[in-house]
Amino acid sequence: MRFETIFGEGASPFSLYGRIKNKTLQYKTDHIRDFVHVDDIAECLNMFINMRQYVYNLKSVYEIGTGNEHKVSDVVDHFGLDVPLKITDNSYEVDRSVADITEINKLGWVAKRSIYE
After folding, report:
1. pLDDT (tens digit, 9 = 90+) per residue, 7-28?
2. What CA–CA distance (Å, rounded) separates 103 from 62?
3. Nearest residue to 95 via CA among 32, 7, 23, 1
4. Collapsing DSSP states into helix, strand and coil, what is residue 94?
5. In 3D, which of 47, 78, 51 has the Cα closest to residue 64?
6. Using CA atoms, how far apart are residues 80 and 76, in angstroms rounded to an integer?
7. Distance between CA atoms of 105 and 109, rounded to whole angstroms?
8. Phi and psi (nearest 5°) for 100?
9. What pLDDT shows up at residue 58?
10. Buried/exposed 91-114: b ≥16 CB within 10 Å, e otherwise
11. Which of 2, 43, 83, 115 has the fewest CB within 10 Å, making it most exposed?
């Protein structure tokens, strides 16, 4: 399983979501991310645990996310943080990371929560 950007209760204070919630974020970017709630991930993992009889028919990788694109700057603005926009050109950070949820949806799983709730 490949998880996208995780958010929710218990987030590390060093994660993007943790820094947004703690208001310690120093800047925002225009990177595109797919934010998936930790409870949605738990439900997805539970689904896999309960389908152990099908384990040999599963794909090798499932992307776990919402499939929805969100600009980091829009999410930061939504939570009311007034931080500067930083244009980054880092080879170690991708500009866009969004799950292709086609295969995981075929198993009946769909993320239920939004970063904006």
Report:
1. 999 999 999 999 999 999 999 9
2. 7
3. 32
4. coil
5. 47
6. 7
7. 5
8. -90, 105
9. 75
10. eeeeeebbbebeebeeeebebebe
11. 2
**pLDDT (tens digit per residue) in 18-76:** 999 999 999 999 999 999 999 999 999 999 888 866 666 777 789 999 999 999 999 99
DSSP conformational letter for 77: H
Rounded CA separation 9/31 (Å): 23
What's the per-residue H, E or C state across 4-69? Answer: CEEECCCCCCCCHHHHHHCCCCCCECCCEECEEEHHHHHHHHHHHHHCHHHHHHCCCCCEECCCCC
H/E run at residue 86: none
Q: What is the DSSP letter of 91?
A: T
Q: Are 117 and 68 in contact (CB under 8 A)?
A: no
Q: pTM for the complete prediction?
A: 0.89
The pLDDT of residue 53 is: 62
Residue 47 in tokens: 């689904």
